[in-house]
Amino acid sequence: MVINLPRGARVKSRSGIYHIMLRGVNKQEIFHDDEDCITFLDTINRYKEKAELTVYAWCLMNNHVHLLLKEGNEDISITMKRIGVSFVSYYNRKYETTGHLFQDRFRSENVESMRYLLTVIRYIHQNPVKAGMVQQVDLWKWSSCLGYYGKTVYPRMLLDSDDLLSLFSSDLSIAQERFKEFNERKNNDECLEEQINQRRLSDNEARQEIKRQLGGIELAQVKSLPREKRNKILRQVKEIDGISQRQAARILGVSPSLIFKA
Questions:
Q1: Do residues 24 and 101 touch, judged by C-beta distance below 8 A?
Q2: Could you tell me which of 128, 155, 160 has the C-alpha nearest to residue 59?
Q3: What count of Cα atoms within 13 Å lies in the side-chain half-sphere of residue 246?
Q4: Nearest CA among 54, 37, 64 for reference residue 154
Q5: Please, how many CA atoms are within 13 Å of residue 154, restricted to the half-sphere of its CB?
Q6: Under DSSP, is residue 218 helix (H, G, I), strand (E, B) or coil?
Q7: Chain centroid to CA 105: how far?
């Protein structure tokens, strides 16, 4: 007999600060183009004003999101639910899908010290580098890194960086340089779930992994399979670590929407 135990209540942070991770269900991609990223950040910005959030950092990856937030006038779980519902509604309209987009409830950890706050910011900014997406943290435009470096970041008023930069120096330009040195320092930081930072497979590597999943079926035959069998294979392909859905669609010669909806 299987007994389903209720999930424990989220432990409240004494500081009110949380490192939050949202992940696509079944590792599916959340963001397929720039419009998706812009819409998600606009959604956070909208609820920042309504819930009086403080936003210390963010990073949008293909299939997961890292946020560093201080809750405002309501419980962080309520705010995150509002953000999630709003974005999923947009996503389902745009891609003509239904059902869940995010995996279960969001993961979080409490951030109770200034030292760990800075560690989490660095971890979040280095996510794309450790995942092999870019060579330098400031080359990934969908994180808050550029804002800390004094460069333009979207949306302009989302980031609350002044208090943290003042820890490095009262002179802003010096503070930004010192933060940059700290932010790019090599480290073994592990926050929340280190294993999500998987290296993206090259097309050649991805092609070989897909072929292993297909058994004797040729890549070019997948798009002509009966719908039920095709969708079963596409769901298996989406489970392959290090492969994006767009990449899989390109290799299999199918529409990305088929991968999204499978």
A1: yes
A2: 128
A3: 8
A4: 37
A5: 13
A6: coil
A7: 14
Phi/psi at 124 (5° precision) = -65, -45
What is the number of helices (H) and of strands (E) in the chain? 10, 4
- Total residues found in the chain within this entry: 262
Give 83's strand partners.
Answer: none
Task: Report the chain's terminal Cα–Cα distance, integer Å.
Answer: 32
The number of angstroms, rounded, from the C-alpha of 211 to the middle of its chain's C-alpha atoms is 28
The Cα 126–Cα 185 span in angstroms is: 10
10-21: buried (b, 16+ CB within 10 Å) or exposed (e) per residue? Answer: eeebeebbbbbb
Q: H or E segment at 123?
A: helix 114-130
C-alpha 5/C-alpha 215 separation (Å) is: 38
Q: DSSP 3-state assignment of 67?
A: strand
pLDDT along the chain (262 residues), means of 10: 48 93 86 95 97 97 95 95 95 88 86 94 94 93 97 94 95 97 89 57 83 84 85 83 78 78 72
Closest CA to 227 of 258, 252, 248: 258
Report how far residue 232's alpha carbon sits from residue 10's, in angstroms, rounded to the nearest whole number: 35
Residue linked to tokens 């183009």: 33
Nearest to 41 by CA among 22, 20, 59: 59
Tell me how far apart the alpha carbons of residues 198 and 200 are, in angstroms, rounded to a whole number.
6
Do the Cβ atoms of 256 and 238 come closer than 8 Å?
Answer: no
Give the per-residue pLDDT at 196.
45
